[in-house]
Amino acid sequence: MPKASIIITTYNRPHLLPRAIASACASGQDVEVIVVDDASSDETASICQSTRGITYVRLDRNQGVAGARNVGLVASRGEYISFLDDDDVRLPNSLDEQIEALRKTPEAMLCYAKAIPAVASGKQSEPYPAHCPQGDIFWKLLVRNFIPCGTVVVRRTCVSRVGLLDDSIPGIDDWDIWIRIVELFPVIAMEMPVIIWRQSTPASAQGSSRTVELIALGRRRFRDHWMKLPRAVNATRAERHEAWRAFSRNIAEHLTWETLSALRQAQAGRGLTSAQTLLRLHPGALLSVLRRWTRASTIITLMTAGTGRNDLANAKTRFKQIRSDAPRQ
Fold first, then answer.
1. pLDDT tens digits for range 187-203
2. Could you give the C-alpha distances from 21 to 2, 8, 31, 129, 169, in angstroms and in order?
């Protein structure tokens, strides 16, 4: 039985896949690399079949990232499990370092770390998140997903306890399973980068680029599922209220950013959709957000953001770091 399994899901990106596979193999010793081909229609199958040292699983119909990851989970055998997107890169020996951290902290079931955001040109930004909370992070994680998926290593016993990913919520399925884990177990974090994390844009095929849709999906999940978990149900009314207040403020900030960035790129339709969503979901939040955005650090980030997609992606990463580090009023 291998010590760890890295599950790579892929769909029609054969030019990126070999790099991801090579990085997974170099991330640790005794690593099982499972590539789940989500019904690609190009040369992905032939590339995988000719690649030695991997377990290749091909799906007959496209099941989306969460469904493909679940197939990989079922096929995996490692004591520790990690996911890697086909356009991301695991840093050498990083998996072994995280496994050793988990070995030294037996009560923790999940270890995450920082990611280095990068755009298609290769330009990199400062590691995200700026700081990595650890221990009991349930309430913090409810407010915003600050855990880059590819940095996570979990124990197999933990997945057996909380269940598989929910493929009915594509784009936030990783956030959902992290919340189910941290509701029950403490988390450890490493203040170091372990992956190079390719950033999405509105024009990309990545699920995280559908910001407005994902925000609405996350809002429903928060109210209909996460606040009905035993930890939330048994919390005080004040704790529940503050969680919703902070979550709503985070949503408002994301939508305001999407509105402004769309307008800077002369994408009036996308900007209007973001603004309408903001006013519909949280009509009272806009004034609060604008008041908080008058801080010098935030204004500088907004003013220096270029009009190109890559510049805006870098500015958004920097903006997220500023907002996550800002004291809450």
1. 999 999 999 999 875 44
2. 17, 8, 11, 25, 26
Tell me: pLDDT of 5 over 60.
yes
Lowest-confidence range among 73-82, 114-123, 129-138, 272-281? 272-281
Listed in sequence order, the DSSP H helices in the chain are: 17-25, 44-49, 64-75, 94-104, 138-143, 156-162, 173-182, 211-224, 230-233, 237-264, 268-281, 285-292, 296-304, 309-325
Q: Quote the distance between the C-alpha of residue 212 and its chain's center.
A: 16
Domain residue ranges in the chain: 4-198, 207-325
Among 111, 145, 108, 142, CA closest to 128: 145
Tens of pLDDT, residue by residue over 153-174, are: 999 999 999 999 999 999 999 9
Q: What percent of the chain has pLDDT over 70?
A: 75
State which CATH number among 3.40.1640.10, 3.40.190.170, 3.40.630.30, 3.90.550.10 fits the domain covering 4-198: 3.90.550.10
> 3-class DSSP state for residue 85?
strand
Give the whole-angstrom CA distance, residue 264 versus residue 32.
45
Q: What is the pTM of this model?
A: 0.82
Angle at 213 between CA 201 and CA 14, to 5 degrees: 45
Nearest to 90 by CA among 175, 189, 19: 19
**Lookup: tokens for 278:** 């903001």
